[in-house]
Amino acid sequence: MTTVLIVDDEPQILRALQINLHAHGYTVVPAANGTTALAAAQTHAIDVVVLDLGLPDMDGLDVISGLRGWSEVPIIVLSARHGSHDKVEALDAGADDYVTKPFGLDELLARLRAAARRGGSQASQPLVTTPEFTVDLANKQVSRHGEAVRLTPTEWNVLELLVRNPGRLVSQAQILSEVWGPAYAKETHYLRVYMAQLRRKLEVDPANPVHLLTEAGMGYRFAL
Amino acid sequence: MTTVLIVDDEPQILRALQINLHAHGYTVVPAANGTTALAAAQTHAIDVVVLDLGLPDMDGLDVISGLRGWSEVPIIVLSARHGSHDKVEALDAGADDYVTKPFGLDELLARLRAAARRGGSQASQPLVTTPEFTVDLANKQVSRHGEAVRLTPTEWNVLELLVRNPGRLVSQAQILSEVWGPAYAKETHYLRVYMAQLRRKLEVDPANPVHLLTEAGMGYRFAL
DNA sequence: AAAACGCGTCAAGAACGTGTCAAGAAACCA
DNA sequence: TGGTTTCTTGACACGTTCTTGACGCGTTTT
């Protein structure tokens, strides 16, 4: 999941970008001025910044240098000015890209992808950790005390579904239909067998699970 | 000293850029077509690539993906086309920036500085080494105990895909569709044959692989 | 209090996936 | 064109995973 910080003083543009980027799978953190932008960049794990230079409280260039003071997050500058001088200044201040308005959404999305790709190396990994074991969603790997744990495909599918909904109750029917297919929604026996196997591989005391919990008659829950 | 590879089929533009960039302290490597560009990128230590998409011998996009196959060097695309679709394609192919002609020299210089700033830090070698063998992504060569290992094209493609995702589980379907094409996504037998060949050539004990691992029912994983 | 139900556990056969060898077909190169 | 390399395909043994049934235990319902 990529998190984008959008800085723009025009509420309608902010809203429009927010909606569109969210629709394309990005997590969006909005900011209407430079001060909140800099604050948000410190409190959130930002992967890319989209920055409109025309801000009410401070010069956009100062926002760039403010960010560059401590972060190497990719910055895409939006601006209505076509002047070459403005581009030079923004890029030299530390921006990574410069897009002039009006721009097509697909172009912005492409530049976002390019920027996120670059910064991607440092971005947060889809890792879920508990005191006992770690689930690496991207690499499909589970480790316990540093050692890799072998899971069968079905075991993995069940675990992944639960881990992707941490703390949430997942009904048996939902697990069964997502892992085995809708036709198997009532084969609750499968679940018992596989939950037992997962617990045997992951829990310290399989008979008294701490993370893979049963809610009798309802479903299962993954607790951190 | 920053070295820039300039790819443009128009001799006068090539000359003009060469002179101007040199005047600004850059070392310039010129190339008039895609083939020489890709060759030059391997023989010279390039810091930034400036690429005109309109080339006589091959599609500019193929030049981008050709470079991206082994290098993360920043690529700035020059193009006469303003169409948003072209920008999206170039950026998604792996370009870092897109400048439409006509452009001011100072803007190009600023984008060059921004690109060089980014690329400067990494200087990652396209070499992957394990205690047993070494994979040279750039030169498409594998050596074992200092001796070159002969791989067939398909063997190489499979190995490359795995090595580019170290530690990550790559599904059989993904390998098959990337190497043989989407239509072959279910021809898992191919994979078994080729994994066996790779292991025979690279593993100490092919029957007990250490680096080219099988995750039954899920896919394969390259471990360092 | 007994029965019914849901859950966890174990074990075994069936079904499926994998490794290996080998040979014919196709592609490539000189 | 001939010779070589590479790809595709088949057969079989082996290992893993899935499915299924049986049983014990605890909780809830009758």
Automatic annotation (TrEMBL), chains A, B:
<dbReference type="Pfam" id="PF00072">
    <property type="entry name" value="Response_reg"/>
</dbReference>
<feature type="modified residue" description="4-aspartylphosphate">
    <location>
        <position position="52"/>
    </location>
</feature>
<protein>
    <submittedName>
        <fullName>Response regulator</fullName>
    </submittedName>
</protein>
<keyword id="KW-0238">DNA-binding</keyword>
<feature type="DNA-binding region" description="OmpR/PhoB-type">
    <location>
        <begin position="125"/>
        <end position="224"/>
    </location>
</feature>
<dbReference type="InterPro" id="IPR011006">
    <property type="entry name" value="CheY-like_superfamily"/>
</dbReference>
<dbReference type="InterPro" id="IPR001789">
    <property type="entry name" value="Sig_transdc_resp-reg_receiver"/>
</dbReference>
<dbReference type="InterPro" id="IPR039420">
    <property type="entry name" value="WalR-like"/>
</dbReference>
<dbReference type="Pfam" id="PF00486">
    <property type="entry name" value="Trans_reg_C"/>
</dbReference>
<feature type="domain" description="Response regulatory">
    <location>
        <begin position="3"/>
        <end position="116"/>
    </location>
</feature>
<keyword id="KW-0597">Phosphoprotein</keyword>
<dbReference type="InterPro" id="IPR001867">
    <property type="entry name" value="OmpR/PhoB-type_DNA-bd"/>
</dbReference>
<feature type="domain" description="OmpR/PhoB-type">
    <location>
        <begin position="125"/>
        <end position="224"/>
    </location>
</feature>
<dbReference type="InterPro" id="IPR036388">
    <property type="entry name" value="WH-like_DNA-bd_sf"/>
</dbReference>
